[in-house]
Specification:
The chain is an alpha+beta fold. The chain has a domain at 31-133: PurM-like, N-terminal domain (60s Ribosomal Protein L30, Chain: A, 2-Layer Sandwich). Helix content is 33%, strand content 22%. The chain has helices spanning 3-11, 51-68, 87-103, 155-166, 174-178; strands at residues 27-29, 32-40, 72-82, 107-114, 122-130. A five-stranded mixed beta sheet has the order 1-2-5-3-4, with helices on one face. The radius of gyration is 17 Å and the shape is globular.
């Protein structure tokens, strides 16, 4: 089953208006905006990436979703897979802590599970934000609206292609793909 097929199936379950038809990166619960992102080893980060930068990235991608909706950070829940002796996880949590402190995002709970040694890590974060006056959705765009982007389109793909062919990240955006800024 492909991701698109899964989302179509989930739309039949997530029928509450707060889910926004699963057409957006967030749900809106009253005056709260909720988002969840998952990152997987070998898909969104490399085994050789510094664990602290992976933690930072997980927070940043969630805060980016909140920022896109004009929401300010309120709280987060972490899903952490533990694998091996724990050294990687401690560094990862250092990155989570640094990003949460930098952006005023309190960590209020979550869940942990242990995986067999060598299993790829799959990590998730749910971020909750205070909604602004208006929470835009993707469906509301009209001809003539402004579209704001930060960075250069395609930079992340170029960095990953560089790594796949040369074994190193190259280019001005290589640091951004490891430790992105959510705004």
């Amino acid at each position: 089953m492909r991701e698109r097929e899964v989302i179509e199936r989930l739309r039949r379950i997530a029928t509450s208006p707060e889910a926004r038809g699963l057409l957006d990166d967030v749900a809106v619960l009253g005056r709260m905006v909720v988002t969840h992102d998952t990152i997987a080893e070998h898909v969104h980060f490399l085994s050789s990436d510094p664990a602290a930068s992976v933690g930072w990235k997980l927070v940043a991608v969630n805060l980016s979703d909140l920022a896109a909706k004009g929401a300010s950070p309120a709280a987060a829940l972490l899903s952490l897979t533990i694998c091996g002796a724990g050294k990687w996880e401690l560094a990862f949590l250092g990155g989570i802590e640094a990003a949460c402190e930098s952006y005023g995002l309190p960590l209020i709970g979550g869940d942990t599970i242990a995986l067999p040694d060598g299993a790829p890590r799959v990590l998730g974060l749910t971020a909750i934000g205070h909604a602004g006056k208006n929470v835009p959705d993707r469906a509301g765009a009209k001809a003539g609206d402004s579209l704001w982007l930060i960075g250069t389109l395609g930079d992340a793909a170029r960095v990953w292609r560089s790594f796949a062919t040369t074994g190193t990240r190259r280019g001005p955006s290589s640091t951004f793909t490891v430790a992105p800024c959510p705004f």
